[in-house]
Write a structure and sequence with these properties.
Arc Repressor Mutant, subunit A, three-stranded antiparallel β-sheet, alpha+beta, DNA-binding, homodimer
Amino acid sequence: MTTGPDALFRTLADPTRRALFEQLCREGELTVTRLTEGASVSQPAVSKHLGALRRAGLVLDRHEGRHTHYRANPEALGPLRDWTDEMTSFWERRIDALEDLMKRMDR
Amino acid sequence: MTTGPDALFRTLADPTRRALFEQLCREGELTVTRLTEGASVSQPAVSKHLGALRRAGLVLDRHEGRHTHYRANPEALGPLRDWTDEMTSFWERRIDALEDLMKRMDR
DNA sequence: GCTACTCATAACTAAACTCGAATATGATAG
DNA sequence: CTATCATATTCGAGTTTAGTTATGAGTAGC
């Protein structure tokens, strides 16, 4: 169920989709109608965005009668955090190497 | 120079662009020709992607004669980290509230 | 001066994405 | 069984985006 950074970035790039995910993080489990009320687009659009979020592993769904409840799965953000950590550490490692070099040049 | 999560997600959603940023994080300062060699697209495409990264504050450029040196600016990833932290904390806060509720229901 | 080199921009094409309308599917109520 | 409600899917139009080639602007070296 864990997706790479690529799918995460692409999925979260859309503002409407990100807003849906944010609402689910804030308010917990919600139905499609409830999410559609808060959104600025039609119900089919909301359903499609939820499908994309689900395929990326960012949300989970639960069927109950004719309702579908969606909830956020923030654990799916892991690879995204790992990626930013990696990029930052690359940079810091380079800074450290530069400092070492300058120290060696001093003596 | 600090950009919101929206611009960051949209800018990093493209694989080619993200690869350029990753290379700059790993290898430090590089010229456009050097970056084009490693990329799988033409030089104009690389230039456009670098422009997008620069507008998002993710890279900085330095002109030296007829060369332009680009370098990563990982500090720009801050809002992205803040956003993921916020989403995770929303979720954890909800879990905590749920546990409290269950404790109250026990007694 | 001229030529070669580096990078950015312009103009265009093709593919991808998003949206709403209409429709299909599936479940409950009467 | 039929009607209605909740959600998903299909389809076509409009928009955005990334890619290309061609070209322009600025610099280095002869």
